[in-house]
Amino acid sequence: MSFFKRNIIDNISETPLINLEKINKALGTNVVVKLEKNNPGGSIKDRAAVFIIEQAEKKGFLKPGGTVIESSSGNFAISLSMIGAAKGYRVIALVDPKATETNKALMKAYGAEVITVTEQDDTGSYHKTRIKLANELARKIPGSYRPDQCFNVLSAVAHYHTTAKEIHAQTGGLIAGIACAVSTGGQIGGIAEYFGKHLPETKVICVDAYGSSIFGGPSHAYKIPGVGLGWTPRNISDVSKIDFVYRAKDESAYIAARLLCRHEGILVGVSSGAVLLAALNASKRLRNIHPIVAVLGDSGERYLDTLFNDSWLESNNIDTGVEFERLLTLAESMEAPVEAGNIDSNYRDDLISLLEVPATTITHYNMLDK
């Protein structure tokens, strides 16, 4: 038995569950967090990135020396950049102004080429303009492949076989629920599919941002990176498989992430602040005996120039206070979640042709190999 990993990609493995000792005692909650920042690329996106790339290699879509082109707000592109460095692929990442300087520097450190797309789409976000440009580049560059996390349901398949199974094994199924953020839908889609099949009494808790229209409603710009989209991604096969949908406010997510760092010593990103608040609110609501697992997607080190920069926060009208008592107020003041049966969908299959999604992208579950 070898005492070392074959390569850095082989080190994508089980991430820890950590109890929130002080927070749970003070708030009367029962929440544990899963630290996805412990993946070698620093985020939960490692799981889907390596799965999709390996599937592309098996299908012959990506050959040695090929080019990987992706639209990403940061973490998925960083994961692909790491994989590209390890496997010898050229990586081109299309980011937007919400990507931090640290994230862009990480991509470049791995050798990726970074293009910042500044044109907003009709939802006030950058997803559609980024994707359209990525697809244009893929058609022009020979030997290129688009992992296409927004439309590729392999992302959900990856989380079904890794994140969801792992949580089940780690807890022995003794959990009340799982909370995670939603953007391209891979995490929540895979988790909802797995637990709906294997442990249906487990509550699936989805955390979105105000301004996102994944579950309908008006679209507008927001400041939480890595959360939200202008439509319901097909990684979510059926919104009825989700039990609760929370929406987090920008300022609340930033404050909560800072409080978690200051009072539990857990340094995570902005989206994790949103997930934390939803998990705490759900725990107060459910009065759960078994814990709720809050999946925290990445590390706060990537947001030192924003989330942990008081000057940046003040310039964006975000409070810099870190008093412990604020956490209960923030958690209890969250708007009540939309519950299963009342969750709207906003699927936009017309975007597949409109944005010229590549034929190599598996856009629907019925296209999957058995």
Automatic annotation (TrEMBL):
For activity, the cofactor(s) needed are:
pyridoxal 5'-phosphate
| Keyword Hydrolase recorded | no
Q: InterPro entries from the entry?
A: Cys_Synth/Cystath_Beta-Synth, P-phosphate_BS, Ser/Thr_deHydtase_PyrdxlP-BS, TrpB-like_PALP, TrpB-like_PALP_sf
Which Gene3D superfamilies does the record cross-reference, listed alphabetically? 3.40.50.1100
Question: What is the superkingdom listed in this entry's lineage?
Answer: Bacteria
Under Gene Ontology molecular function, one entry of this record is: pyridoxal phosphate binding
Query: Which keywords, in A-to-Z order, does the entry hold?
Result: Pyridoxal phosphate
Record field: catalytic activity: O-acetyl-L-serine + hydrogen sulfide = L-cysteine + acetate
Report the protein name in the record. cysteine synthase
In its UniProt entry, the species of origin is given as Xenorhabdus budapestensis
